[in-house]
Amino acid sequence: MNVRVTSLLTFEDCPRRFFAENILGLKVPSAAADIGTAIHTVAERWYKEGKNFPGFKKAAEDEIKKFPDTLNIENVIEIAGLAKKFISVYGEGGFDYQVIPEIRLQIPVGRHTVSGQMDALFMPLFPGMPAKIVDLKTGRNRAVTKQLAIYAFLVVKSFGGIHDVLTRYEWVRLNEKDEYHYSEKHLIEIELWINQQVKQIDKALRKGEEGFTCNPGHVCAYCGYAQQCPATSGDYNPPVEDSIEDLAELPTSPELLTSEMAEKYASRLLALQGKVKQIENVLKIWTEKHGPLVIGDQAMGKFEKASQRQFDVKKVIERCQERGLNPLEYITLSSTAAKKLERKIDLEGCYTEKPSPPTWSIKKVETVGLESTVNTVKETVEILAEDEKAVPEQPTVSSLVKDFGVFLKGVEAPQEALENVRVAYRCSESGKYDETFWDALMSAVAWQGLQNEKAQEIAYMIQQIENVAQAG
């Protein structure tokens, strides 16, 4: 199966929508999408047809005839005008680059292929220079995705001698741009992400329609397939995850809670929060269509909020001065306003750090100061070592996975097994011991020709990794 770059991103957002578009072949009419297609085609015709190009207005008129359900004569001026903006990009190559508009690249990934079509690829004519990619956007939602990073990966894999890629989103309606630089080192994570997405798609294909789960959220309100989707019609039953074993009654005193029990309760809490969030998202969509729900003395829906006062700061300062008051005692700079101001001036030395008291919450591991905690532990160990009381360094999950990979390489494991270990190692480095981590680890040992004594060593190493992961 050939999977387009945009389809990979769709699968990440909602597998069910991917199923509707790529398996069932459903197409929802979209004027915005058709305008974008028409603009790209007109610009491409200008580049390829040269003297035979009929002019932007005539080319735009030709294009709207292809989309009678969504476009009409009123769209001609808009299409022609934005196409003229497009072609200005083609002249950026100068004497150092060859410009290739609307180029499609395709690479094999597992049993499938991944392809992407770039609006403009600039290939260097001299060695050592980076390739360039420009992706022209006609929308107004300035959202940034992995699209350019995947395009850069396709270029590096498709052309020898290319090690760096400069990329740019060109927002033609907004007259703005976002630029990114990718080297081979930066694209390692993208390669892992692509491989993982394709594996998940392959896994879903083997299960059939039920393998493509719904991911209800705020984007459902803008999805063309929402009316046919079971998640928004109320007929959706999310797949049941591997159940957590029944928990004992929660002790009245936290001191009676063991580490193992705490981990199980935490896992159950996260699972329940996920279910609650999913229910909330579906109910938000339902109430937007049908109005608020009243359950007992509680109401759910979108309600008007009390109006908020917007103060004119200049007038407030003048009023304070009239009354002999110091306005600085009453007016403060919010953190949001400070961030905007820092984009224009340097505020270093204009503030003091005020520590906030810790509050109980659930956050991503990497956002809660894990690195600084580790550094503190290392400093403590160094001090103890100076006093000849050093504590031997405990193995981490990532160090054990790394040793495991070295072991597999030593016993001449196949390349696919080593690739799976790399995926597991990347997960362990970020502290993510999720399904992706364990699937990669187990896949790394699923190969033929393994001697019995080596299999026993592998089993021991896997057990070590599992013990440390659970303890952490």
Structural class: alpha/beta
Tally the beta strands. Answer: 8
Put simply, the count of helices is: 16
Which residues form runs of ≥5 with pLDDT under 50?
240-245, 366-392
Strand percentage? 5-15%
> What is the CATH architecture term of one domain?
Alpha-Beta Complex
Stated plainly, the CATH topology of one domain is called Lambda Exonuclease, Chain A
Average pLDDT score = 78
Distance between the termini: 40 Å
User: Element order, helices and strands?
Assistant: EHHHHHEEEHEEHHHEEHHHHHHH
Rg for CA atoms: 28 Å
Helix content: 40-55%
Look at the structure and give the CATH class of one domain. Alpha Beta
Largest sheet entry: 6 strands, mixed
Quaternary structure state of the chains depicted: single chain
Which of globular, elongated, flat, extended, rod-shaped describes the shape? globular
Question: Could you explain how this protein is built, in words?
Answer:
Strands 1, 2, 3, 4, 5 and 6 form a 6-stranded mixed β-sheet that branches. It is built from 16 helices and 8 strands. Among the domains are: 2-195, Alpha-Beta Complex (Lambda Exonuclease, Chain A), CATH 3.90.320; 220-239 and 278-289, no CATH class; 314-342, no CATH class; 397-471. By secondary structure, the chain is of the alpha/beta class. A hairpin with a 6-residue loop joins strand 3 (112-124) and strand 4 (131-137). Helix 1 (5-13) crosses helix 2, helix 3 (31-49) packs across helix 4 and helix 6 packs across helix 7. The two termini are 40 Å apart.
